[in-house]
Structures are given as C-alpha cells and as structure tokens.
Amino acid sequence: MVSSVTSSGGRFNNVALGTNALNSLTNGDDNVAIGAENATNSTSGKRNTTIGSYSFVENTTGQRNSAYGYLSMWKNTTGNQNTGYGIQSLEQNTTGSYNVGFGAEALAHNLEGVNNTAAGYQTLMNTTANYNTGLGYRAGDVITSGTNNVIIGYDTDPSIAAASNQIVIGASVTGLGDNYAVIGNSSIERLYAASDGAAVLYANSTIQASDRRIKKDIQDLGYGLDYINSLRPVSYYKKDPKDYPQELKDKFYPDGKV
C-alpha cells in the first residue's frame, strides 16, 4: 500500500511510502517516511527522514532525525537531531537528542541520553547517559549510567557500568578506573610516542616499576661501577599481572579484572 502526504492543511512537502507511513501527521513539514508503519504516530514532526519498516513509529514531535533500518529509532517521541543507521539502532530512544548510532543495535537502549556517538554492532548498546563515544564491535556495551567515556576497539569496555571519564583503547581491553586512560591489551609491550625519541611526556608524576614482588628470573649482572659496588645490579623479567601478590592486585586492579 502506498500513502502520500504532500501539501494540505498544516502539512507541506512530505513524502510517505508504505502502509500507515506518516498516517497521523497533522502539522509537520519536509518529512520522508518509507516503510510499513514508518513514523505512523508522528503528528507535528519536521524534517525527519526515516527508512525501514517500523522505524520511528512512536515519534510525535521530534525534528531533524534520520533513521535507517528496521526498528531504527522506534520509540523516539520528542528527541531531536539524532541519526540511527542499522537495524534497531537507537531503538529505545525516546527524548534523547544529538545522538549518532551507526550499526545494528548501536545505542539501542538509550532512552534520554544526549550527545552519544556509537559506531559498530551493539556499540554503547546499554548506555542511558550522556557524552560517550564508542567505536568497534560491542565497544562500551557495559556502560549504563556512565558519562564522558571514550571506548575504542573490539569488545573493549570501561571498568564499570557507571564509568566516568575513562579512555580505553585496544582489542578486548578493560579500563582500570575513572579518570584513567588505558592503551592496549596485555599483549602490547611497547608504546612509541616518536621514533626519533624527541617526544615529551607531560605529567605531574611518573612511575617506573621496580618492585621485587613483580619480577621473576632475577639474576646478578656481571658488571657494576666501583662507586656503587654496594648496590646489587640485576636483570629480571616482569611477572604476569595475574601472578602479582594480592596486595598489589588490589592496588593496581581495584575492579578485580587482571
């Protein structure tokens, strides 16, 4: 079945294609709805573009939204300037605005959160809060009420669902806490800032681990300067974090994920 809403009453420049598409429109302009039941409850929405069966179904007054895919932005009612691209992207969004969900089920359970950006299958799927960025398969899918997080990489997550201001980058990496930045998983051995050694690290403090409790295969070196003969120069291999003493695990990995 094809329906078409053009210029009549308070409706101007609208296009509807599909059973009940834009069926309730009374006062909206410049909308495009393609697919069965698409934007069927929209009454005064403006400048929305929605493509896919049952996408944008519950919208009433939301404006300047773009939804592409089956059930994309299905629950949106008054949210503005969102973009959902993929099956069930931003599916449960109701009043949230300025969100971008690119990928199947990206930001699917966001209700009122604003300014979130998700790209990837189920990326930031469970977030209900604001200002999160996720890139990669299921990146940040554990976040619920957390805010201001940047999560990049396959199956990478912050330390907790309510995480705040965490940066986590890499494949299957888990953050270490709020206001922490973690780059790379346990297989990463070196971090290069500049190949010529000219990079500068700015920090209030730095830590160079030199704790016997996290070393193994310790051996005496065969050399040493005369004036430091009282010291014991050694070579060693750092232990795997899972073999650290419990008191260090508690300090370095408070969430218990080693």
UniProtKB/TrEMBL annotation:
InterPro entries: S74_ICA (IPR030392), Serralysin-like_metalloprot_C (IPR011049). Residues 210-243 form the Peptidase S74 domain. Pfam families: Peptidase_S74. This is Peptidase S74 domain-containing protein.
